[in-house]
Amino acid sequence: MDLGPFLLLASLEGLVQAAVLSLAALGLCLVFGVLRVVNVAHGEFYMLGAVIAWWISYALFSHPLSGFVAALIVAPVLVGGVALASERLVLRRIGHNPEATIVATIGMLYVIQQGVLILFGPDARSIEPPFYFRIDFPWFGYSGYKLSVILMALGLLSVLWYVISRTRLGLVMRATQLDREMAQAFGIPVDRVYGTVFAVGAMLAAVAAVLIAPIRQVHYLMGLDPLLMSFIVVIIGGLGSIRGTLFAALLIGMSDGIISMFFSPTLAKMVSTLLVALVLIFRPEGLFGRREP
Rounded to an integer, what distance in angstroms lies between the CA atom of residue 51 and that of residue 88? Predict the structure, then answer.
């Protein structure tokens, strides 16, 4: 294959990774932006969404499409419920203290991971794609499902942007992010906002996992890589910056897809880590983050 078609194929793979990564990283960004805490268990919510999707697809539905649609609805709701319960029972009791939250979410990480290991087992399992069709380019054929992942992610990101920027819920979230005390003075239920945002962040990770599950195998350790990549994206884009997170997700996803295709996945991770180091050295607040006065 010539360089041009090979580059196109690598770019398509990069766009798929960027689409899924943007959803997962945006969930982490929202939690930090509003709660000002680092959720180390974010990758396990991702993994839990994929495991629930596998269970729904194989235990409840015989047709792949109906199972996928059900998983896309049920898995985020169940994961969001687990996250909401975790926020109320654990994080709220420690006052969302940043240092204590890191330790608490590490504990949550191991509880979720080991619980899934006991119930799901150590073996990796696959989910059948909901539909099969191929888009024929002049040089190669490409999976129609992978292209649909990009479109579905764009649709979900558009809905989320509308909610944050055009609805009362988004206004309340932004007010709580800017000044918690002032928001409380105006009667905003800050604790309820915190619980909602934490649950929404986990639900975004679960949606990303459901979309990627038919492409990659599901196993109890699959949360590590999206957690690492989400941290890389959020640091590069700027902690709490939605615009920066989306830009960095596109940058990292595309570079990871292209470098992995031309060279190796290991080199792609090395380049991403190098970008984080350069950002921390020359612009510690991130590309779109605000410098503290």
Answer: 24
What are the pLDDT digits (tens) for 232-251?
A: 999 998 877 888 899 999 99
As a whole number of angstroms, the distance between CA 272 and CA 258 comes to 12
Residues of the chain with confidence (pLDDT) below 50: 293
**Mean per-residue pLDDT of the chain:** 89
What are phi and psi for residue 135, nearest 5 degrees?
A: -95, 120
38 pairs with which residues across the strands?
Answer: none
CA R_g for the chain: 19
Q: Can you give the residue ranges of every domain in the chain?
A: 18-222
The answer to whether 272 and 255 have CB atoms below 8 angstroms apart is yes
- How many residues can be counted in the chain? 293
What distance in Å separates the CA atoms of residue 213 and residue 128, rounded to the nearest whole number? 9
Gap between the Cα atoms of 240 and 256, Å rounded: 23
Cα(107)–Cα(130) distance, rounded to whole angstroms? 35
Is the distance from CB of 34 to CB of 177 less than 8 angstroms? yes
CB-CB contact of 73 with 57 (8 Å): no
Q: Environment class of residue 266 by beta-carbon count within 10 Å: exposed (0-12), middle (13-18) or buried (19+)?
A: exposed
The closest alpha carbon to 200, from 148, 250, 164, belongs to 164
Q: Are 34 and 286 in contact (CB under 8 A)?
A: no
Which has the closest alpha carbon to 190: 51, 34, 24, 11? 34
CA distance 289 to 238: 4
